[in-house]
Write a structure and sequence with these properties.
It is a single chain. The protein is mainly α and about 140 residues long. The chain has one domain. Helix 1 crosses helix 3. The protein is rod-shaped and about 105 Å long. The N and C termini lie far apart (about 95 Å). It binds heme C (HEC). Heme C binds next to helix 1 and helix 2. The site of heme C (HEC) has 17 residues, from helix 1 and helix 2.
């Protein structure tokens, strides 16, 4: 009579120990999974931020380079001959359609033979203009 009872309680004890152990393992597993997922998420969002700021800096650099061309090759003359069309960092985006028209469509600018754009300057200007959503 005693023997099977003992056996029975020891089986229950064994089972509940197993359950607690497996719950612990399960909990540890879930926590590890959450930790890994959080880290993946974190590293990805960091990547996005880095990429965004690189893209932003690249755009700023391109705009700056474009402005330097406008300043050297266009403003130098416009200041004297066409003061209402002097390009600045603040107005160049608004004037992008006009710049595109004059330099690439009608090819009237840069006016005269004195002021030429190099191939590199043309390609910088073109690259910047393609970002300005000109139809
Ligand atoms: C040697 C002088 C000179 C240079 C260099 C020059 N321009 Fe001009 N530009 C003018 C003059 C003068 C006018 C106004 C008369 C006209 O449109 O021909 C003008 C007009 C313009 C206009 C207005 C056109 C319109 O629709 O009324 C734009 C836009 C323009 N220039 C862009 C540029 C750009 C961009 C550059 C440089 C890549 C440039 N110009 C270089 C002399 C110059």
């Amino acid at each position: 009579m005693i023997c099977p009872m003992l056996n029975f309680t020891s089986v229950i004890n064994y089972r509940s120990k197993m359950n607690i152990k497996s719950i612990k393992i399960l909990a540890l597993g879930v926590l590890t999974a959450i930790f890994i997922l959080l880290n993946i998420f974190k590293s990805h969002s960091a990547e996005f931020k880095v990429n965004d700021s690189i893209a932003l800096n690249a755009n700023e650099t391109l705009k700056q380079e474009t402005f330097e061309i406008l300043e050297a090759k266009c403003n130098s003359c416009h200041r004297k001959k066409n003061p209402f069309m002097v390009f600045s960092i603040r107005n160049m985006e608004r004037r992008a359609p006009k710049i595109h028209e004059q330099v690439f469509i009608t090819k009237r600018m840069p006016k005269g033979d004195q002021m030429r754009l190099t191939n590199n300057e043309y390609s910088i200007l073109k690259k910047w203009l393609t970002q300005q959503n000109i139809n």
